[in-house]
């Protein structure tokens, strides 16, 4: 009977519906705009030096080797997080996990597409908004366009990527996204004032 | 706020990104089961806790997430230098008064 029930439910279950946290939320203040970015494909990649070339080739983007840098190509961005650790974000819907699966060189690739939420912070007051909770120096000399770093915002860990001189991408964990968006909303109003 | 130089990120970062991880250069015995109780106690519980220069492990928790070693003055809380994990204990300290 249990078997029959299992069979029946297997037929009835529709494909899992993806419900992104905070989908489509936006906020505009003087000088800064916040927007929750659409879902993207992401992987957490760990690999030793010897595997980097093969992985770069498979992913189609050269994994950066310098601290606090990123590389982008064809909608795919690789962010340096640590000496052997990268975050790869794909915004055009191609799964980087599948590309890594073909690589035989030693590596660990973990799909974290649903774990993270991306929030864009744009406008002349973007750096001031993020600096309300992030202790890093975000001046253009020290944190230029393309710079990426894991850091903190208020109480939570984020990954920060500068996409333009007045635009940032904030990546946070899904369960923290409400906190991060609210924090940034308050900060945006303060930065505007 | 203190600025701590991370040897892996190769720059100074705010202290909020770091966590202290206790005293450095404490070698675990390769034959831990054969240790006498006194030796094990020394290895496991006894720390130097000096007033002055201390060698510590730190972790760049909210950055590159790597462990590294740092030399700190416990009186002034000043970091004299930091170096990568696994590197030998430095014999010469830059600008060390004592």
Estimated structural class of chain A: alpha+beta
Secondary structure tally: strands of chain A: 11
Portion of residues within helices of chain B? under 10%
Briefly note the CATH topology name of the largest domain in chain A: Gyrase A, domain 2
The average pLDDT value of chain B, as a whole number, equals: 92
The termini of chain B sit apart by: 24 Å
N-to-C SSE series of chain B? EEEHEEE
Helix percentage range of chain A: 10-25%
Profile the largest sheet of chain A. Answer: 6 strands, antiparallel
Shape of chain B: globular
Largest interface: A-B, 13 and 14 residues
Specify the oligomeric state: heterodimer
**CATH evolutionary superfamily of chain B:** Folate-binding superfamily
Structure description:
The complex is a heterodimer of chains A (193) and B (98). Helix content of chain A is 24%, strand content 34%. With 193 residues, chain A is of the alpha+beta class. Chain A has two domains: 96 residues, Probable tRNA modification gtpase trme, domain 1 (Gyrase A, domain 2); 73 residues, Alpha-Beta Plaits (2-Layer Sandwich), CATH 3.30.70. In chain A, the strands form two sheets. Chain A has a six-stranded antiparallel sheet with strand order 1-2-8-11-10-9. A five-stranded antiparallel sheet of chain A has the order 4-5-6-3-7. With 98 residues, chain B is mainly beta. Chain B has one domain: Folate-binding superfamily (Folate-binding fold, 2-Layer Sandwich). In chain B, 8% of the residues lie in helices and 34% in strands. Chain B has one helix and six strands. Chain B has a four-stranded antiparallel sheet with strand order 3-4-5-6, with no helix packed on it. A two-stranded antiparallel ribbon of chain B has the order 1-2. In chain B, a hairpin with a 5-residue loop joins strand 5 and strand 6. The longest helix of chain B is centred in the middle third of the chain and has 8 residues. Chain B is globular. Chain B starts with a strand and ends in a 14-residue tail after the last strand. Chains A and B meet through strand 9 of A and strand 2 of B.
